[in-house]
Fold this sequence. Notes:
Chain A is globular. Chain A folds into two domains: 2-223, Rossmann fold (3-Layer(aba) Sandwich), CATH 3.40.50; 228-291, Alpha-Beta Plaits (2-Layer Sandwich), CATH 3.30.70. Chain A has helices at 46-53, 95-105, 110-123, 139-151, 169-184, 196-202, 220-223, 240-249, 267-279, 294-306; strands at 2-13, 18-30, 35-39, 61-66, 69-70, 80-83, 157-161, 188-193, 205-210, 213-219, 228-236, 252-256, 259-264, 283-291. In chain A, helix 2 packs across helix 3 (110-123). Chain A has ten helices and 14 strands. Chain B is mostly helical and 258 residues long. Chain B is built from eleven helices and no strands. Classes of the chains: A alpha/beta (308), B mainly alpha (258). The A-B interface holds A 11, 51, 54-58, 74-75, 77-78, 80, 82-84, 86, 88-90, 92-93, 97, 101-102, 104-107, 146, 149, 153, 159 and B 1, 5-6, 9-10, 13, 16-17, 20-21, 83-85, 87-95, 254, 256-258.
Amino acid sequence: MIRTSGLRKTYRTGFWMRAVEAVKGVDLEVKPGEIFGFIGPNGAGKTTTIKILTGLMLPTAGEAWVHGLPVGDPQSRARLGFLPEGTFFHDYLTGREFLDFHGALLGIPKALRRARIPELLVRVGLAGAEDRQIRRYSKGMRQRAGLAQTLIGDPDLVILDEPMSGLDPLGRKDVRDLILALRDEGKTVFFSSHILEDAEVICDQVAIILNGRISKQGYLDELLSQERVGAELVAESISEELYHELEHTAQRAIVQGTRFLFEFGDEAGAEKALDRVRACGGRVRSFVPRRRSLEDLLLEGIRQESKP
Amino acid sequence: MRSLERIWVLAFNTYREAVRDKLLYNLLLFAALMIASSVLLAQIQIGKDDRIYRDVGLSSIAFFGVLIAIFVGINLVHRELSTKTIYTMLAKPLKRWEFLLGKYFGLLSLLAVEVAIMSACFLGVLVWTGADFELGLVWAIVGIYCELALVTAIAMFFSSFTSPYLSAMFTVALWIVGHLLADLRAFGSKSDLAGLRELLEALYWTLPNLDRLDFKADASAGNPIELARVGVAALYAWLYSFLLMAGAVALFQRRDFR
């Protein structure tokens, strides 16, 4: 569905036209019917890569294909829905006019547009606001209008650049639900995000981009394996001596009233502490093993990047 | 989907955006007031009332038309870039030349409506004052519209690669120079400065010569204007506009939208 090979982008910026290498050889492969998370901190090269995929920027080197066609071919975007970062729309249009305009640009016949627009407005939660100008919409409503625009052509591939950014928790959940529903309909969703929890919940596959390079790429269940990377222990009724003993072996120790919370970076150390608490007559309130998360992967990548 | 349909969709949206812009109505109001003021100007001038109505009416249509072409035109193109609304459009199977042509034809439609409204005000003044109406006035208005189409193409050309302020500055400069080319050429022919004569001669033949499209003086004086002269001028304006739009497309094609 999407493939890139050695994709590079250098552009010049500022008064002195300083060269900035935003993308440094990105290789990606997104298969049909999956949710692909493109993860990375701000400035990592996510938006630049997406702009190349959507024909808004020309690559300096390397190649990219969408729907099997080179991105320079406008037909590669015939079955593509795109939501850019931010909510940049023709705000002098009403919600209905906005969707009609984008549908017409895609060549959708008028009768089909008339049928599809009310359905989409209901789907994204904008029913009743269709005759209001977009400039009078709240930020969440604008994002919903943008999502409806993305779907007006019933695309096979949906590319969303930071779709959850700036939304309240309810708005984020709605976007997550919509992405999952699109996958259930057989569509491919490629989205960028720096919000790791969202990506971890919904993605099949992720690629982590750091400083213009792919740091890790693969299916979430493989990348995050079942390997435990530590544990959190909450205990009560332990002696001061035992607290100091465990404090030395834990990554972090916090006293919360009568409770003691310890975070361990390795599972063996955590289980040893658990045995010590039990042996000394302390009460274990909870013991939660911690598995590798996207945040761990991202932090590992950042540490590796910063090594000389 | 055919390119023509996509260009039509964009042209209609450009027109719709412009007619929802308050700046346009302010300019139109001033134009109408200016045209109507010819009635007052005629009161303080002795004789030649008809000439005043025509001079003021045609000049107002030309001047406010150019203001709309340059400022509304440049604003409409740059707003798509600055508000990033162009992202969702170009991420569709839309070719960049279709985008530019859609914008251009949208602006031409807007200018046609503007010129028609201002011409109706002008005609209203002529009818109200009982002044003579001659065919030459129609040719003068056709010339104004051709000039506006050319000025819009100049504005689009500069908009395709530079900022709105520079686009406006360059377009205004070319509009002024475009009306002075004959004078500059005459000045060059009398100059002893080495190279100046050749330079001004080259500019005369390469820069858009807007005086070719200006029939206002003849129409105002009631002089006959031959249809062939109007035809050649119109052909010149549209050919020049075509070349400018081709240049704009070539520059726009390689542009990155950051």
